[in-house]
Design goal:
Shape: globular
Distance between the termini: 25 Å
Helix content: 25-40%
Order of helices and strands: EEHHHEEEHEHEEHH
Number of strands: 8
Largest sheet: 8 strands, mixed
CATH superfamily: Gcn5-related N-acetyltransferase (GNAT)
CATH topology: Aminopeptidase
Oligomer: single chain
Structural class: alpha+beta
Radius of gyration: 17 Å
Number of helices: 7
Strand content: 25-35%
CATH class: Alpha Beta
Bound molecules: coenzyme A
């Protein structure tokens, strides 16, 4: 488990598939998170995918719960990719409970993933991507220190037109230079509690 402010990261379990079945077939959610509103995933397909992913230990996949309610609200992933021996973490998330969009939770999830990547897994860089029309994701990534690093032009076809796909990345030293400010902004009154959990007492 990894607690960060109001959110808790825990492993995905088989019983979460009921919830995933609802989220992964939600057209609006899939439009933003996968650039494919028309996604139809049966329970059997989800179960198969779940079994296959159990073998991919390098990739971390989480269910996110709100600490206050202990109820799942979305998912997140941190995939380890090595580009020319540079340890890279590819991150992604969605909040399945759409009524919670726009309340700062996405920013908290993103900073939590960066904490895991840079202060626990010793990554050198992180990257992420989003469709051109996803301004919530764009603003979240920029607010967390990411820089827009590239564009695949007109690669998505959604709702009757083509859209670009944006890439973002963040180097370890860039993150560390803004880390405390980001922790303060996202954790607020929970900052001390978090710093306490990552403090190693000596002797
Ligand atoms: C993208 C997502 C994770 C962001 O999380 P969130 O909790 O909704 O976002 P936050 O409340 O942390 O706000 C992030 C930024 O978006 C802005 N924002 C909020 N609502 C917005 C809206 N309706 N339109 C545009 N921007 C919006 C916020 O002002 C904030 O920007 P700022 O830091 O410059 O003020 C979440 O909206 C989500 O799950 N969306 C659907 C799936 C998805 O897009 N996943 C990401 C795929 S790349």
């Amino acid at each position: 488990m990894f607690q960060f402010g109001n959110v808790l990261f825990r492993p995905m379990e088989k019983q979460d598939l009921e919830l995933l079945h609802m989220w992964e077939n939600d057209a609006e959610l899939m439009m933003y998170s996968r650039s494919r509103p028309l996604t139809f995933l049966s329970m059997i397909q989800l179960e198969k995918r779940f079994e296959e992913r159990l073998k991919e230990e390098k990739h971390l996949r989480f269910i996110i719960e709100l600490v206050d309610t202990m109820k799942p609200i979305g998912i997140a992933r941190l995939e380890q990719r090595d580009w020319d021996n540079v340890k890279t973490g590819h991150i992604g998330t969605y909040i399945g409970k759409k009524e919670l969009w726009g309340r700062g939770i996405g920013r908290q999830i993103t900073v939590a993933l960066l904490e895991m990547a840079f202060t626990q897994l010793n990554m050198e860089r992180c990257d992420a991507g989003s469709a051109e029309y996803n301004s919530r994701a764009y603003k979240t990534l920029i607010a967390c220190g990411f820089k827009k690093s590239g564009t695949y032009r007109k690669i998505h076809y959604v709702n009757g037109r083509k859209w670009d796909h944006f890439y973002f990345d963040l180097l370890r030293e860039e993150y560390l230079s803004v880390r405390m400010e980001l922790l303060r902004l996202t954790l607020r009154d929970k900052l001390e509690q978090y710093l306490e959990t990552i403090r190693i007492s000596e002797g």
